[in-house]
Specification:
Shape: elongated
Structural class: alpha+beta
Low-confidence stretches: none
Mean pLDDT: 83
Strand order of the largest sheet: 1-2-4-3
Radius of gyration: 30 Å
Strand content: 15-25%
Order of helices and strands: HEEEHEH
C-alpha cells in the first residue's frame, strides 16, 4: 500500500529575521499616565431631583395642584408633605420627536436642580409637573421661564 501522508517535522524553521510589528499608536497630546498628585476629597455632587411616581401623586397634582405658566412651560405644584421636591414632565408627541423631547427633559431637569440648589426658597418640597408646549428654546430662556413660573407658585 502507498502512503498518502508525508512526514512533516514539528519544529519551526527559524527565518533569521524577526517579524516586523507596527509601532504603537503614540498619543502626542496627552501623557499616558496622570501627571501630578491625585485630587483630594470628593467633588461636589449634583443634587438629583427624584421623579414623581404613582397614580395617587398624579391625581393629587391634577385635583389639588397650583398652576403657573411662563413661556412654553406650564408648571403644576402640589405640596404633599414629602421632604424633597419631586419632578415629572409632560411633553406630548406633537411637540417633537422622541430624541428632542428627551433632550428637553434632560435640560430642564438640570436647570430645575440648579435652581433648587441656588435658590431653595423658589423650590419648596412637593410634587412638580412641568408641561412643555414647544421645544425651540434656549437654556437661558428655559431657566428664565422656570424661575418665573416657580416665583408665581411661591406665596
Amino acid at each position: 500500500e502507498s502512503q498518502r501522508e508525508a512526514h512533516v517535522s514539528a519544529k519551526q524553521a527559524s527565518s533569521g529575521k524577526e517579524a516586523r510589528l507596527p509601532q504603537p499608536h503614540v498619543r502626542s497630546r496627552r501623557p499616558l499616565h496622570r501627571q501630578g498628585p491625585a485630587p483630594q476629597g470628593k467633588a461636589e455632587a449634583v443634587r438629583l431631583i427624584p421623579a414623581v411616581r404613582g397614580r395617587r401623586a398624579f391625581d393629587a397634582l391634577r385635583r389639588h395642584g397650583t398652576r403657573s405658566r411662563a413661556g412654553a412651560l406650564r408648571i403644576t405644584f402640589h405640596a404633599d408633605g414629602s421632604p424633597t421636591p419631586r419632578l415629572a414632565f409632560a411633553i406630548g408627541r406633537k411637540v417633537g420627536p422622541a430624541v428632542a423631547r428627551n433632550r428637553a427633559r434632560r435640560r430642564l431637569r438640570v436647570i430645575f436642580a440648579e435652581i433648587a440648589h441656588d435658590e431653595p426658597e423658589l423650590v419648596p418640597a412637593g410634587d412638580y409637573l412641568v408641561a412643555v408646549h414647544r421645544l425651540d428654546f434656549t437654556t437661558a430662556e428655559a431657566s428664565a421661564w422656570l424661575r418665573s413660573a416657580l416665583g408665581q407658585l411661591v406665596p
